[in-house]
Amino acid sequence: MSSKPRAPKRPSDLKPRLAKARARGMSGPLEERARRMLAAYLDMAEQHGLSLRETVSEMAGGQAAWRLGSATRDAMLANPPEAVRNAACTAGCAFCCILTEGDGGLITEAEATRLHAALSPLAGQPDGRDWHRAACPALDPDTRACRAYEARPMICRSFLSTDAEACRVNAEGGTAEGSGLLGSHLDYLATLAVVRDALKGIAQVPSYAMARIAAGAVEGETLEESLKAARHAPKVLEETCRDAARAAGA
Ligand code: SF4
Ligand code: SF4
Hints:
The protein has helices spanning about 15-20, 30-45, 50-60, 65-80, 80-85, 110-120, 155, 165-170, 185-200, 210-220, 225-230, 235-250; strands at about 105, 160, 180, 210.
């Protein structure tokens, strides 16, 4: 007679689910690294006295992936690869904030909430779309600085280029080389995908369209309205993982 699996009571009780969780669209090594980082996160959550409910809430909302992704990104920047050392990025250079393709990128509920809170007080003011019709609404149309810099999501923190002219060409629909995402962003996406699979049946792990959240905030929508309108279909996370891994050759 087989015994029923024990219902999770503590953060570390999620480890058996984690061990089986997949990051669809990502390579095996990225998937495995995400599982390892999340197992360490569960240990840390328990050491810090977080309840199972608090831990699941952090994971589902994207805070766990944010912590792990930020740590990975910081570690990479402490010993920057050549692309980072040669980055052409400067204040006011904002061709990467022209969202010609897609919806500005996939963000978590935690990122959407922070971005919305940063932009809501600016509702009704001119926004990035007054500079370029496809620009991110978070952009200042005069200075071309991000008006939500401290609240910008991981996708914005992870994008860079060694050639601003290539960014200009790409913003107009071209395919110039020189720009891309830091490798740490793959870990971020893989972590989110593993979390979603591990929490199946326990909690939803939604993702959102960044540009739609920003537009809703500057147009005076409530957070609830913006989250509802910007929510992705479930398949978008897997597609985003696959596209990011393919672009990075990972
Ligand atoms: S990614 Fe490109 S457009 Fe964006 S700041 Fe860097 S060089 Fe400028
Ligand atoms: S949130 Fe800020 S950095 Fe990100 S695309 Fe919008 S304006 Fe650019």
